[in-house]
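Sequence in, structure out.
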Amino acid sequence: MAVFPDLTMAVLYGVVVFLLVLGFLVVFVEKIPPRGFVAAVVAAAVVAIGLVSAGEAGVALLAAGAGAAVIATHGFEWLTTR
């Protein structure tokens, strides 16, 4: 049985994880080094793909939300330091 059987609630949890991680990164992390950025995005993608293949699509959305927050932080930093 899946941890989050309702995908709508899983999407909402993914959005909450995205906003929490994004807020933490924006407030407490000044700059993510390029190697750390790539490692975080690849790790989030691998975890999400692994969870989807195991049948846990809802939990995979949490990992995808965390990876998307890292990407959004990088984009925010790039836009504000130009």
